[in-house]
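Weekly sync notes, structure subgroup
Attendees: PM, AL, DS (notes)

Item 1: joint prediction request from the bench team. They want all two components modeled as one assembly rather than separately. Inputs as received:
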Amino acid sequence: MTAPNELKTQTLAFVALVLHDSSLEAIEKILIAKTNEYKSYFYNSPLIINIADVDNIPDIKDIEALTKKYNFVLVGFSGVTRNDIKGRIFNAGYTVFNAAAAKDLAVNQQPAPAPAQETVKTVTVVKEVEVPAAPAQENTMYCATSLHSGESKYAKGQSLLIIGDVPRGSEVKADYNIQIEGKLYGRACSGLAGLAEGKAIESHITCTDFDPELVSVSGVYKYGDSFPEEYYHQAVHVRCENDQMKYEILNSKKN
Amino acid sequence: MSRVIVVTSGKGGVGKTTTSAAISTGLALAGKKTVVIDFDVGLRNLDLIMGCEKRVVFDFINVIQGEAKLSQALIPDKHVSNGKLAILAASQTKDKDALTKEGVGKVIDELKEMGYEYIICDSPAGIEQGALMALYYADEAIIVTNPEVSSIRDSDRILGILQSKSRRAENGEEPIKQHLLITRYDPTRVASQQMLSTDDVLEILKINLIGVIPESQDIIMASNAGAPVILTEKSNAAAAYQDTVERILNPNQDIPFRFTVEEKKKGFLSKLFRKK
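Output from the run, pasted for the record:
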């Protein structure tokens, strides 16, 4: 029997954009800088805008358009003191996060668009995190079995980890990275996020036995029979650097 | 003038893909601009037999669905050095219903415009969508049959479908030319009446015989090596496929059928006193 839905308290960490200059130009500038610096890390990342340090904010629809343009998902605002701004935020369909009164707010206000799911999860503490020095791992789809010929596995919005083999005639695809703890004898395509919009992200593929039909990393592909001979049946790491496919043997089974 | 030839059988495992690979390679070696198309969506094997499985980027379905241009999906064959042979692989991961009459027709028309003289359609087994699409636009059909009753019955069923469900049949045009290719023929077993003879098969199917391919270990070896068997030197199967290609190229020429009669086993004395 399915367990009943629950209303629970959860502690989540969000990326927060702390405004010191509320002009749209200044907001866009920081979004451009950060998305260029950490391309895949922020893709579809939930975002809270902290406005404690500014007097007023531009039209919320304009802010929303900007965050969408750079592939953030705006979920709400924090540091809001003025009631008129609070009203504008609620009218635009967003929520206001306040560390002290977050519990009440989260239960009383409309839930934010992004986390709204079957189970309503309330946000009680908003922790503003520093952007990490290196991009962290995205969510990962985990597959504990080998694929069969004709099978296709796509980790949409995620990286893919396969503990098993990818045989001839099968394919694995991921918006981010692919790690295969087994044979790669089929096709592997990583870094599909943003490809359709011409915004390739950095990605890589690793496997422990390399003999693919085709490898595509961030839109750059190579035929399975065009790698140097010494790479076959080795543990190999393939990545894309300046639109060039780079590959290296992780350890040599032959030695 | 392009000739669209479907290689079909009804029954699986009789040698359709081996035949498609061998015949298309033979035609290209004879200087004819040839393309071989795999219609077996979801169970593709032609790429393996042709040894190009690691060079498939786009496939037939990608072209039909407008995701790639035909020129991007055509894989140049590496065995035929004159550049006359291309392979259009099937998709392994998509559904066979992705093959549409309009889509297939468009691809075949485009191949004709590109100057392909022979368009070989490798049909999947069965009488489902893939097989029907492979034969729909055909001008000629090579029915691959093993000399055994179930294969013959399935071939007979396919002959009926060719006469009723092809474009030529629907439009009331001249019917598809039907040719019989008998594969896995073992004259020794025929002589000992364990296998049906070519005459037995022809008596049931009543169509023009275009080739008899003897049972041969070379075929499995060639398939595993990813090279069409017609390229195997000193192979009876290769020679028989070569004769078949000659018959396709010169339909009015009388080319005798080889390897249909049991080779006389040498006696003990003749083995002992054979000439050096």
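Discussion: The radius of gyration of chain A is 22 Å.
Action: AL to compare against the crosslinking data before next sync.
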